[in-house]
Protein: Aspartate aminotransferase family protein
Amino acid sequence: MSSETLSSTTDVKNLVHPYTNLGDHLNKGPMIIDRGEGIYIYDNHGKRYLEGMSGLWCTSLGFSEERLVNAAIAQFKKLPYYHLFNSRSNTPAIELSAKLLEIAPKNLSKILYANSGSEANDAAVKLVWFYHNAIGKPEKKKIISRLRGYHGVTVASGSLTGLPANHLHFDLPIDRILHTDCPSYYHGAESGESEEAFTQRLINNLEQLILKEGPETVGAFIAEPVMGAGGVIVPPEGYFEGVQKVLKKYDILFIVDEVICGFGRTGMMFGCDTFNLQPDIMSVAKALSSSYLPISATMISQAIYDKIAEQSDEVGVFAHGVTYSGHPICAAVALETIKIYQEDNIVAHVQEVAPHFQKRLHALASHPLVGESRGIGLIGAIELTQDKASKKPFDSSVKIEKRVQENVAKHGVLVRGIRNAIALCPPLIITIEQIDELFDSLEKGLDEVLEDIEKSAVSV
Ligand SMILES: Cc1ncc(COP(=O)(O)O)c(C=O)c1O
Structure:
């Protein structure tokens, strides 16, 4: 069956498509993507789209980076698989680790590999638990995450995720996972509350939660520097400074989830650099390999490593790892990806084009359908509203974000509707002209949906 002869309604019925309304989808079928070139992809009918979301916030170098293909082929020929268990290792995993530590926040010094962001965060949870057992604080196990945070879907990381759909009917969250406020001033501010007062309230709430639970029971706090799947929430000024003070006060570890923000997305190499975060544990995935192959990493401080090493000596082994931890082909591609970031100075490129991206994004705030536009670096979102003054969202039956997403796609650009927001996260190699192409199509899509809504209001 060639890709042109695939029927999107009948031939895909054997798949379970994640984050898809499965009932709906059986009638209509998915958009089938066939090939990619630069920041563009083509569907199986040959229509071209600018990928305004880098797939799932991940293909930082676009869809046709030859160096990554060649790195994979070379490693395939040399050694297609070897593991890191039982005192064995492989060269790409060793070289990648040195490279990652060269660019990561300075206090991180050891790396544990897996395949996905979810597994990296699951490992972070297990390491927090193992560490607190090692230092004789077996009670200090609760982990605080945030509402709207997204950390994955496995049992522990799905519990950390603070979105109802990831919990409902899955029997999540598991115990010992707590959720505190989402730092969105737009969604969470009380009437008349200043941004500063809002931020302080959230920091106080976090401290109150810790005190209520007992600081001796709280082991870690996890956060994305900028929330991605929660709707691109950029924290207000002073938020992380206040949070980190509270964590230090109660001796609580800080896990920073850099799965989306890592590798230049926010305008610095890591979200930690942009927001001055000092992680004890940091998870990375996605842009680690520009998503050409699955690989993720949980990075930890030397202090944590030392205690874990001591404890595992006592057990005999450190009994955590997966078959594909540090897979040599994935590691070789990730290593090449970071070399490209360094040689092409991807951070400087983001800093050069991001002001234009943010200017076009913020210009949308005056559109009648937009309540807020927010972003940093090359990530952003617009919040759709039916009433700017009251910030009233559209009823879910209007499917506003889906309509915008589909109209924009008609104009050759893929964006992602998330609840009432439209998210943007293009490949980091995007040019100024392509940023204009993205926003021109987004504007057209928004105008058409507005016209549609106005028409239906008249006809009611
Ligand atoms: C911030 C963040 N953490 C973790 C994950 C989970 O990664 P994966 O889907 O590779 O398991 C995601 C996925 O979108 C993410 O955005």
